[in-house]
């Protein structure tokens, strides 16, 4: 067995985005490699050029060993397996040599093959040097290496980041389950709700999408230049290459795609991109709602004395975490949408547009990851102002109109909706005006119904369980 990809790396930095303002940030074109470098550094294990080359090396060596295990080439001796393990661990220490080869031949995937050939030349494996990359096309190696990295990136960083955000929302659901709030539809006062219910809605939506995402499979393809094992079958016509490919792809943790051209069909991968985009859209909606609630004074943000909110207005405490998250979620979603739209389109049996497009998946993932962390940071600073929330409800007793007409209907009152509409539509009612409205209704309703109406109160209508 070859070592896992993560064995080549040592630990991961803090998963919460942190500004990096060191010297290296000043010359970076992308903020991901500049001021947010530290915040997205855990993703470099999966989406960097270094990671891709390490994964290519692993796939090439795993395939080489699989040929031996299937009897297509001689059996490897224990010390030869040890040698291959050592080669698998040789990156990133040998990155410079790999890049030298690539510069000479102008082909990044072929450079990995030549690197392996170079490493085993002069060893007991030299007699098998021609079986390195045997029958493979670069698309075989790249899609399997990339797919393995993407799977690990999802499982080890992206899923946990979404889980952490969802868990924070669930915690705030419990914390504020009895905290009343004025619900608004179309921006207008509507009915009472609770702060906890609003957090629960977002937590539930995010978790639902994450559960769908976890069930999706990363596709993988092994089939040669046109997906039909043409060269393989000519060399070893008695060997069952299709079954071999299926088993090999599964051994990498990927879902085999057996009917392909030179590249795998990308529809399954695009479904994953769309699922990530939906999660981002939900978080974007959360950011906007919290921004609105903050502007109404429903929440306050924890203050760090050394921080500055505005360059000219000393009093400002701005919701920058939610604004940063919103901005970069838009960037991430533009990339996810573009990838899902464009990747399934390739000319004839293959062109290289897919390879170049896949290079920006790391950016889409990083902007998503960065945004989730920013929202999480904002949530940690957030505190509900119960006094403001309750006073807003007490300024709008007309929001009991729905409950009134429902109770009247229950007691057989004819045209309950129309009657309450005449008394409340377009009006803002304080408690005094509300009591006067009830007095107008009293002669028209039964004592039992009226007793129920008298018990209604904006702070007591709904307790979310």
TrEMBL record:
Q: What InterPro entries does the annotation carry?
A: Fumarase/histidase_N, Fumarate_lyase_CS, Fumarate_lyase_fam, Fumarate_lyase_N, L-Aspartase-like, PurB_bact, PurB_C
Keywords assigned: Lyase, Purine biosynthesis
**Pathway recorded for this protein:** Purine metabolism; IMP biosynthesis via de novo pathway; 5-amino-1-(5-phospho-D-ribosyl)imidazole-4-carboxamide from 5-amino-1-(5-phospho-D-ribosyl)imidazole-4-carboxylate: step 2/2; Purine metabolism; AMP biosynthesis via de novo pathway; AMP from IMP: step 2/2
Q: Where is the Fumarate lyase N-terminal domain?
A: 34-324
Q: What class of enzyme is it?
A: lyase
**What's a Gene Ontology MF term here?**
N6-(1,2-dicarboxyethyl)AMP AMP-lyase (fumarate-forming) activity
Q: What is its EC number?
A: 4.3.2.2
- Report the transmembrane regions from the record: none
Q: Where is the Adenylosuccinate lyase PurB C-terminal domain?
A: 347-459
Q: Which GO terms describe its biological process?
A: IMP biosynthetic process
- Describe the task this protein carries out: Catalyzes two reactions in de novo purine nucleotide biosynthesis. Catalyzes the breakdown of 5-aminoimidazole- (N-succinylocarboxamide) ribotide (SAICAR or 2-[5-amino-1-(5-phospho-beta-D-ribosyl)imidazole-4-carboxamido]succinate) to 5-aminoimidazole-4-carboxamide ribotide (AICAR or 5-amino-1-(5-phospho-beta-D-ribosyl)imidazole-4-carboxamide) and fumarate, and of adenylosuccinate (ADS or N(6)-(1,2-dicarboxyethyl)-AMP) to adenosine monophosphate (AMP) and fumarate.
Stated name of the protein: Adenylosuccinate lyase
Q: Which organism is it from?
A: candidate division WWE3 bacterium
């Amino acid at each position: 067995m070859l070592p896992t990809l993560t064995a080549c790396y040592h630990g991961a930095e803090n998963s919460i985005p942190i500004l990096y303002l060191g010297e290296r940030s000043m010359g970076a074109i992308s903020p991901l490699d500049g001021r947010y470098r530290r915040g997205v550094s855990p993703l470099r294990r999966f989406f960097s050029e270094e990671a891709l080359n390490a994964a290519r090396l692993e796939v090439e060596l795993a395939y080489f060993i699989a040929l031996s295990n299937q009897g297509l080439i001689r059996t490897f001796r224990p010390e030869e397996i040890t040698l291959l393990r050592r080669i698998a661990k040789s990156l990133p220490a040998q990155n410079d040599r790999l890049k030298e080869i690539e510069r000479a031949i102008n082909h990044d995937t072929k450079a990995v093959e030549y690197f392996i050939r170079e490493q085993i030349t002069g060893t007991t494996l030299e007699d098998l040097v021609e079986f390195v990359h045997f029958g493979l096309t670069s698309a075989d190696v790249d899609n399997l290496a990339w797919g393995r990295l993407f799977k690990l990136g999802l499982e080890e960083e992206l899923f946990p980041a979404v889980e952490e955000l969802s868990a924070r929302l669930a915690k705030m659901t419990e914390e504020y389950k009895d905290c009343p709030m004025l619900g608004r539809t179309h921006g207008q006062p509507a009915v009472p709700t609770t702060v906890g219910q609003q957090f629960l809605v977002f937590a539930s939506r995010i978790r639902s999408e994450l559960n769908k995402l976890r069930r999706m499979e990363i596709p993988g393809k092994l089939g040669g230049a046109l997906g039909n094992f043409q060269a393989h079958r000519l060399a070893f016509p008695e060997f069952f290459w299709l079954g071999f490919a299926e088993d090999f792809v599964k051994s990498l943790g990927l879902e085999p795609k057996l009917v392909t051209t030179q590249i795998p069909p990308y529809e399954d991968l695009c479904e994953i991109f769309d699922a990530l985009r939906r999660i981002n859209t939900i978080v974007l909606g959360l950011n906007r709602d919290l921004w609105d609630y903050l502007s109404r004074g429903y929440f306050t943000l924890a203050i760090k004395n050394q921080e500055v909110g505005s360059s000219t207005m000393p009093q400002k405490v701005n919701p920058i975490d939610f604004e940063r998250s919103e901005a970069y979620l838009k960037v991430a979603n533009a990339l996810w949408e573009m990838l899902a739209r464009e990747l399934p389109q390739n000319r004839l049996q293959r062109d290289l547009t897919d390879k170049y497009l896949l290079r920006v998946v790391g950016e889409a993932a990083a902007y998503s990851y960065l945004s989730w962390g920013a929202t999480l940071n904002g949530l940690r600073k957030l505190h509900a102002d119960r006094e403001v929330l309750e006073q807003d409800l007490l300024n709008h007793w007309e929001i009991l109109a729905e409950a009134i007409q429902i109770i009247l209907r229950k007691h057989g009152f004819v045209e309950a909706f129309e009657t309450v509409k005449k008394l409340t539509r377009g009006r803002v009612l304080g408690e005094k005006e509300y009591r006067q409205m009830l007095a107008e209704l009293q002669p028209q309703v039964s004592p039992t119904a009226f007793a129920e109406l008298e018990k209604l109160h904006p702070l007591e209508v709904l307790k979310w369980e």
